[in-house]
Amino acid sequence: MTTKKEAPLLLALLPIIILIVLLTSNVLLFEDTLSGANQIALMLAAAVAVLVAYKMGFKWEAISKKIVSTIGSAMPSILILLLIGSLAGTWLISGVVPAMIYYGLDIISPKMFLFTAVVVSAIVSVATGSSWSTIATIGVALLGIGKAIGINEAVVAGAIISGAYFGDKMSPLSDTTNLAPAMAGTDLFTHIRYMVYTTVPTLTLTLIIFLVIGFRYDFSAAAIDVENVKTAIEGTFNTSPLLFLVPVILLTVIILKVPPLPSLFIGTILGGVFAIIFQPDVVRSIAGHFETYATSSYYAVMQAMFGDISLTTPDENVNELLSTSGMSGMLDTVWLILSAMVFGGVMESAGLLKRITQPIVKYAQSTGNLVASTVATCLFFNTTASDQYIAIVVPGRMYRKTYQDKGLKPELLSRTLEDSGTVTSVLIPWNTCGATQSRVLGVDTWAYAPYAFFNIISPFMTMLFAYLNIKIRRYAPGEKKLDNNEKED
């Protein structure tokens, strides 16, 4: 019987080093790394990790079992991603997204647009508890408005993501907002109230930055562009306020705590129904020359759900807004997520991730260092395991007793997990969140990441509070410390 051994630190780091080299090479050599290069890099790094695991005495049966388990944990995200592709298709041909852009151009001031995009995304995300749903619906419309008034799409995407992840952190309906306190050992509303201390200053700084950017932007040609966009949309779609019933119904369904998959399916079907009712010309132009409208409707809605749709107007800029790839457009991202899960599964099965983080835990002596170590660990798992849930669960398990032993209340750990694990996931191109939002918005992760100010500032804000000893909750002398599953009387 082979004895399992702990890998030396350098050997445990070898797959990570190879992955970094391969990913860096891909960025330099390939224009679109999402279409295959990064997937292969992850698989090659996973193969190296398998060799390391073999050397340490691990068998393929155990490794493959962990890979399958890790992929299984990502399946809900993959299914949601595929449905988001279908929803984008039916919301385009129904005129829902074009109507949001059309009316939004009248309502939103160009100089206040980025500020407004953050606020609107934050409100919708708090109400729904989902950054993914927010970005896939109102986010896509906001991106169209921003491009129409002449703002760089990467900056707009950064504003949308900043607002959406504020809601993802603070909403009691969010899965990560429930997961973090569960891992740390505190309750949901204590966790949310405690996050206010770091999250509100972070959001305030984000809004100020986008306000400054907005007022410094040159919108001299925006008025002409806006009128051209509105004319092109009006000439292609029947724009009506009734189209807003689709997002209103979807938001209502989500707020009523209907799970994400059925919610997005309902939104997709509603988009198809409204396309048939409100956009007969669009339906016929997609379907071609079928004899009956019923046949054309079936063809157009199905095509929008699974394949490419590209509507043509006299304005080339508008044509970019009126195209989607449906469910098939998400397949490269699904491939990337599967590859990332294989790599993460191998690394975790052989204990390589745990081995790499051991020195970090030993370094954590002061409260500031402990919080900084937790942040670094969350970033590490977001980068290597490629999943925000792992970046919350594993560090939560690792540091829970350490925080308790140092007399720190569990809400400090849960807040740190959210301030780093939740929000930084979208900044990593091969993480499930980064890959998904890049595909949904059509903006490269590396392009929008520098402008996702809320996501960048959050981990630094939580470390600043810890080092300055601001609002750090500790157990009073003699106060009972709770164990993992122990509850207060």
Keywords, separated by commas or semicolons:
single chain, about 500 residues, mainly alpha, two-stranded antiparallel ribbon, about 0% strand
Describe it:
- With 489 residues, the chain is mainly α.
- It has two domains: 10-75 and 331-467, no CATH class; 81-280 and 313-320, no CATH class.
- Helix content is 74%, strand content 1%.
- The chain contains 23 helices and two strands.
- It has helices at residues 9-29, 37-55, 60-93, 96-107, 113-128, 131-148, 153-170, 175-184, 188-216, 222-236, 245-255, 260-278, 280-287, 293-306, 316-321, 331-349, 352-363, 367-384, 388-405, 410-424, 432-441, 445-448, 453-467; strands at 309-310, 323-324.
- The chain has a two-stranded antiparallel ribbon with strand order 1-2.
- Helix 18 (367-384) packs parallel to helix 20 (410-424) and helix 20 packs antiparallel against helix 23 (453-467).
- The protein is globular, with a radius of gyration of 24 Å.
- The termini are far apart.
